[in-house]
Design a protein that fits this description.
By secondary structure, the chain is α/β, with parallel strands linked by helices. The protein is 39% helix and 17% strand. It is built from eight helices and 13 strands. It has helices at residues 50-73, 108-120, 145-153, 172-184, 201-212, 222-238, 246-250, 260-274; strands spanning 3-5, 14-16, 34-37, 80-86, 97-98, 128-134, 136-139, 142-143, 158-160, 169-171, 189-193, 218-220, 242-243. The relative contact order is 0.15.
C-alpha cells in the first residue's frame, strides 16, 4: 500500500506529491493495483467566496488530473480507480427519485461535480473507473454530524426551510465498507453512496436532537438561509434530492446502518465511548 502525502514522507509507504503544481512520481502507479482518491476541500466552509470556489475546484480537478496523468505514464497502470464524487451532482430536485442515470442539476456545485467526474475518466483503457457519489457522511469525529451536533448541543438545533427537503446521508462505517466493496466489484461509472432509506432534513435533525437530549424548536425560513449563506446555504441546507443507491444495492452491498437513526445513534455511541 502507498499513501500520497503533501509533506515530507515519514515512512516507507508514504510518497510525496504536489497536486497544486501537478507534481507526482508516476512510477508509484506501477506499484499499486488500485487508487482511491478522496481529495477535495470541504464544501461545508462558508461562504463560498470567489477565492474559495477556486480552491474547491482546484482541490478536486487538479488532484484528479494529476493522478490520471500519472496513470497514463505508468507501464502497468492500476486496474481500478475509485474517485470521489458527490450527490451534489443532482442539485435541487424535489419530488424526483434520483438514480445514477439521472441528469445533472443546475448550479455551481452541480457543475463542479460533473467536471470532477469527467476528469476521472481520463485514465488508461485498462483501468476501471468508479465515481463514488457520496452523500453527507454521518460519523463521530468529523463529517456532516460535527457542525449539526455542535449547534444542537448549544440548544440551537434549527429547521432550515420547511424541513421536508430530502437530505442524502450515509454512515461513516457504510461509506468505508462501500469503497472496499467497489474495489472488488465489477461496477464502473457513477455509483451513489447513500443510505438505502431516504430521510428528510427534519428526520435527520430530530434524530441528532434526540441523541443529544436537546430541543429541536428553532426555525430558519428559506429566505433567511439564502440571505445569510448565499448559494452555499441553498446547496447544503435547502436542496432536496431523494438519491437512491440503485447500483450498489443491485450489486449486493449490505448496509450496517440502513436508517438515519441507526447512523446517528452509532456516531453518538462512538463519541461517548471516546469521552
Amino acid at each position: 500500500m502507498r499513501r500520497l502525502v503533501r509533506r515530507q514522507p515519514r515512512s516507507d509507504d508514504e510518497v510525496n506529491w504536489a497536486p497544486a503544481s501537478r507534481t507526482i512520481d508516476y512510477r508509484v502507479m506501477d506499484e499499486v493495483d488500485a487508487v482511491i482518491n478522496l481529495s477535495g476541500a470541504s464544501i461545508s466552509r462558508i461562504p463560498w467566496t470567489p477565492g474559495y470556489r477556486k480552491v474547491l475546484r482546484q482541490s478536486r480537478i487538479d488532484t484528479t488530473r494529476t493522478l490520471t496523468e500519472a496513470m497514463n505514464m505508468a507501464r502497468t497502470p492500476p486496474r481500478v480507480f475509485i474517485s470521489a464524487s458527490a450527490v451534489g451532482f443532482y442539485g435541487d430536485r424535489p419530488g424526483e427519485r434520483l438514480t445514477e442515470v439521472s441528469s445533472a442539476g443546475e448550479g455551481f456545485l452541480c457543475d463542479l461535480v460533473a467536471e470532477w467526474e469527467q476528469a476521472a475518466t481520463l485514465v488508461p483503457k485498462a483501468t476501471r473507473v468508479v465515481q463514488a457519489r457520496s452523500a453527507a457522511v454521518i460519523g463521530a469525529g468529523g463529517g456532516a454530524l460535527t457542525p449539526l451536533a455542535l449547534f444542537t448541543r448549544l440548544g440551537l438545533a434549527t429547521r432550515f426551510g420547511t424541513g421536508g427537503q430530502h437530505w442524502s446521508w450515509i454512515s461513516r462505517h457504510d461509506e468505508a465498507a462501500a469503497l472496499i466493496h467497489l474495489l472488488r466489484s465489477p461496477l464502473s461509472g457513477p455509483v451513489n453512496l447513500v443510505g438505502p432509506v431516504p430521510a428528510t432534513f427534519d428526520r435527520a435533525a430530530a434524530s441528532i436532537a434526540r441523541e443529544a437530549r436537546r430541543w429541536y424548536l428553532l426555525r430558519a425560513p428559506e429566505w433567511v438561509v439564502r440571505l445569510l449563506l448565499g448559494e452555499a446555504g441553498q446547496h447544503l441546507l435547502l436542496d432536496s434530492a431523494k438519491v437512491i443507491p440503485t447500483r450498489l444495492a443491485a450489486d449486493g452491498f449490505a448496509w450496517a446502518q440502513p436508517r438515519i437513526e441507526d447512523a446517528v445513534a452509532a456516531a453518538f455511541s462512538e463519541r461517548r465511548a471516546r469521552a
